[in-house]
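Write out the 3D structure for:
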Amino acid sequence: MPIVDIPAESRKIEVAANTNLLDALKQNGIYPDAPCGGNGLCGKCKMIVNNDTVLACKTMVDRNMTVVLPRVENMQTLRESPCTES
């Protein structure tokens, strides 16, 4: 299973292969801003993965990754419930 390294959180999480990155983060208590519900429309879940800028909602975890999260003001408090689709 791939490992997602999140240095800002001092965490490494094991993720089932081909899991959506946004879903994997949410399952581990990290909720990037995604007001479009993860449909790739708003661009708010943009982050850096292995030195490339990607949308978490459109990125599959298919290998080990190092993730740089957006600044805190662009994320919900890490332990809050995730956004719901509107």
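Confidence is low (pLDDT under 50) at residues 74-86.
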